[in-house]
């Protein structure tokens, strides 16, 4: 048997295991001390009532012969794709329902869309980065070129000087881990680069709902020409807490074609071969997100996290510490004080202030010396953490 040897090239993901080990050791040495966990990348508030009610009704439908539903359309039910299409209209972008593919979450589609491309294409990935982009491409055996995100470009890397033809470019905005968000002009430079080099941008908009500044693009399709060079991946995880329910969507416009092949068409064919769709109950729940009540309730949850992010960033600002994110993202990314390295600062913060965060170096070499705090904790704990940061 010939195995996919690329799987052995995946780095062992020690980051979260190492965090857990260090926290466990701290607990053993300091029994009774309460830890503030701001390392979480997961939604912590429960599903909003409108979503829950709609899902309960969908369960009832599944329990009766007359309303039972078996396999649904592989690309997702039209009722949900139409709602997403309307959501794009609120962003002044026209995406038709047949350009939308419902998925079981963004993480799967980060790898799934790669089936469209040969493993001979080069991949461009920022460093630091959400690790799934790197892993998915290592599995396929693609050559990865990293572009540097750092303090000097406010963690929003510009296009490379060299023109890498036919490359797959991953962009995440608002970014995990840095929280940095591309503005229209900087994102347009990537779209122009992709069009010029016949490349494709895989745009991860998982955190789009956190954008407060209405001048910032919350979809790549607000940029002229993007429909001809970009795929957008989105998720219900961070807008509505579907991390455990699992639902997302990917947009491939019919304008996106290479060498006369329309990608929307072949992606649909690939989907039929590999996927039998997301559950009806899940899609009914996702659809409720876009109702008037659903949106109201979701906004309340998002405001809760946004306020947490504000508290953390205000404390860093008062201390004069360089940071990105927070304003349009649930993450605050900052330079470790006293020129500490990421893990050194992790221990310092844990041992002196009982705060747990995520060492930036875990997201790539340019993350060394930086640190991520998340706003997905409770208000009370975040307030306490912000007070403690002021004592740094
Ligand atoms: N993209 C980014 C940037 C993320 O941070 C995450 C999860 O943390 C995902 C995608 C995964 O989203 P999903 O839960 O829809 O798989």
Report on this model:
Helix 3 (78-89) packs parallel to helix 9 and helix 10 runs parallel beside helix 12. This protein has twelve helices and 15 strands. The relative contact order is 0.16. The longest helix is centred in the C-terminal third of the chain and has 27 residues, at 292-318. It has helices spanning 15-29, 49-62, 78-89, 106-112, 131-140, 184-197, 237-240, 263-274, 280-288, 292-318, 342-353, 379-390, and strands spanning 36-37, 100-103, 122-127, 144-148, 167-172, 200-204, 230-235, 248-252, 257-258, 261-262, 323-325, 331-335, 355-356, 358-359, 370-374. It has a seven-stranded mixed sheet, with helices on both faces. The protein has a four-stranded antiparallel sheet with strand order 11-12-15-14. The mean pLDDT is 96. It binds pyridoxal-5'-phosphate (PLP).
Derived structural class: alpha/beta
* Range of strand content: 15-25%
Chemical compounds bound to the protein: pyridoxal-5'-phosphate
Backbone CA Rg: 21 Å
Rounded mean pLDDT score: 96
The total count of strands amounts to 15
Features:
7-stranded mixed beta sheet, 392 residues, 12 helices, alpha/beta, 15 strands
Task: Summarize the entry for a quick read.
This protein has 392 residues and is of the alpha/beta class. The protein is built from 12 helices and 15 strands. Pyridoxal-5'-phosphate binds next to α4.
């Amino acid at each position: 048997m010939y195995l996919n040897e690329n799987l052995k090239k995946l780095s062992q993901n020690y980051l979260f295991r190492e965090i857990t080990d260090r926290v466990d050791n701290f607990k053993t040495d300091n029994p009774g001390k309460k830890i503030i966990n701001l390392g979480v990348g997961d939604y912590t508030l429960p599903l909003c009532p409108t979503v829950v009610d709609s899902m309960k009704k969908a369960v009832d439908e599944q329990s009766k012969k007359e309303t039972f539903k078996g396999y649904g359309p592989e690309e997702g039910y039209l009722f949900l794709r139409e709602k997403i299409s309307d959501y794009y209209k609120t962003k002044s972008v026209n995406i038709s329902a047949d350009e939308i593919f419902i998925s079981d979450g963004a993480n799967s589609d980060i790898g799934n869309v790669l089936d469209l491309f040969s493993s001979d294409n080069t991949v461009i990935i920022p460093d630091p980065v959400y690790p799934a982009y790197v892993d998915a491409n290592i599995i396929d055996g693609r050559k990865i070129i990293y572009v540097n995100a750092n303090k000097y470009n406010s963690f929003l890397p510009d296009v490379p000087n060299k023109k890498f033809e036919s490359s797959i470019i991953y962009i995440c905005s608002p970014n995990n881990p840095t929280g940095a968000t591309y503005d229209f002009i900087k994102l347009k430079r990537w779209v122009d680069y992709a069009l010029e080099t016949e490349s494709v941008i895989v745009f991860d908009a998982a955190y789009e709902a956190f954008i407060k500044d209405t001048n910032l693009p919350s979809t790549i399709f607000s940029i002229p020409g993007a429909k001809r060079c970009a795929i957008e991946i989105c998720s219900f995880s961070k807008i509505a807490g579907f991390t455990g329910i699992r639902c997302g969507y990917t947009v491939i416009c019919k304008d996106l074609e290479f060498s006369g092949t329309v990608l929307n068409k072949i992606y649909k064919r690939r989907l039929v071969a590999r996927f039998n769709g997301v559950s009806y109950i899940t899609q009914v729940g996702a659809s409720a997100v876009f109702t008037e009540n659903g949106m109201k309730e979701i906004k309340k949850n998002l405001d809760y996290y946004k306020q947490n992010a504000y508290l953390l960033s205000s404390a860093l600002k008062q201390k004069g510490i360089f940071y990105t994110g927070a304003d349009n993202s649930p993450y605050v990314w900052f330079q470790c004080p006293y020129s500490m390295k990421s893990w050194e600062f992790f221990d310092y913060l844990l041992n002196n202030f009982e705060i747990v965060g995520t060492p930036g170096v875990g997201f790539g070499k340019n993350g060394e010396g930086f640190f991520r705090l998340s706003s997905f904790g409770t208000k009370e704990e975040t307030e306490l953490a912000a007070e403690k940061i002021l004592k740094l």
